[in-house]
Amino acid sequence: xxxxxxxxxxxxxxxxxxxxxxxxxxxxxxxxxxxxxxxxxxxxxxxxxxxxxxxxxxxxxxxxxxxxxxxxxxxxxxxxxxxxxxxxxxxxxxxxxxxxxxxxxxxxxxxxxxxxxxxxxxxxxxxxxxxxxxxxxxxxxxxxxxxxxxxxxxxxxxxxxxxxxxxxxxxxxxxxxxxxxxxxxxxxxxxxxxxxxxxxxxxxxxxxxxxxxxxxxxxxxxxxxxxx
Length: 228
Prior knowledge:
By secondary structure, this protein is an alpha+beta fold. It is built from 8 helices and 6 strands. The strands form 2 sheets. The protein has a 4-stranded mixed β-sheet, covered by helices on one side. A two-stranded antiparallel ribbon has the order 1-2. Strand 1 and strand 2 (118-120) form a beta hairpin. Helix 1 (4-22) runs antiparallel to helix 5 (83-102), helix 3 (41-59) packs parallel to helix 5 and helix 7 crosses helix 8 (199-206).
């Protein structure tokens, strides 16, 4: 059962952590390369702000973005802004998202995200939480996958395992941290490959933030995952 109110509170905490970390930077640091290829820290901050506004659109029944091209253009436009402008935009857009989500709503309704993806409205706060936590790591300011809240890591591993479940290019795969297991990839009576490791390393591999070299693989090679 998804608890959207609890996720909104967790999202608020994550946003404050990110804003506090970014507040220690300077204008030069914002223009430096992030951990995401081709993106500076400014690109990430611009994306986070525009993503919050896009999810307001989702809640209010509008398309998430006008187009893929408009999404990219907005990020490129906003990426070079100075630190104080970036911080204000991330803070204010996050507040708009929280205000919209706090209003009366049918949380069981289906909403449409990017590229025709649909989901329950109740999962949107968690999706935004994912954006904030993973992009905080992507900023490269000292916040690592190991610093993520334990509940978040477990839920995101499960979410990504479900996302790749049934994918024809991913062999039947079992993920385990030694205490819990998740199945993903093609459906089969038994997994072809078992991938074992700590939850942070499993999440890093599933989310495209780590190459999986810290994971133990039995039954074959580490599967190549399609892009998110």
